[in-house]
């Protein structure tokens, strides 16, 4: 668990703290990419097409 206090005086008096369960929390780290999710049931789409087929014959 992580405890968050809005004010320093609340921390010093140990009052009004918020408890955060870190098991279900995602932390974004600046400069780092999140890990890629791997699916084993469905084939992944090409990252360049974003899952959409590009039809350029009508352009």
From TrEMBL:
Q: Where is the composition biased (Polar residues)?
A: 38-49
Q: Which UniProt keywords apply?
A: Metal-binding, Zinc, Zinc-finger
InterPro entries per record = Arf-GAP_GTPase_ANK_PH, PH-like_dom_sf
State whether keyword Metal-binding applies: yes
Recall the GO molecular function terms of this protein's record: GTPase activator activity; GTPase activity; zinc ion binding
Q: Does the entry feature the keyword Nucleotidyltransferase, yes or no?
A: no
For the region Disordered, what residue ranges are annotated? 32-59
Q: Where along the sequence do coiled-coil regions lie?
A: none
Q: What is the protein's given name?
A: Uncharacterized protein
What species does this protein belong to? Latimeria chalumnae
């Amino acid at each position: 668990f992580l405890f968050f206090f809005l004010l320093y005086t609340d921390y010093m008096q140990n009052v009004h703290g918020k408890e955060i369960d870190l098991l279900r929390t995602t932390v974004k780290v600046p400069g780092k990419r999140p890990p890629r999710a791997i699916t084993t049931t469905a084939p992944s789409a090409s990252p360049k097409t974003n899952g959409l087929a590009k039809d350029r014959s009508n352009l």
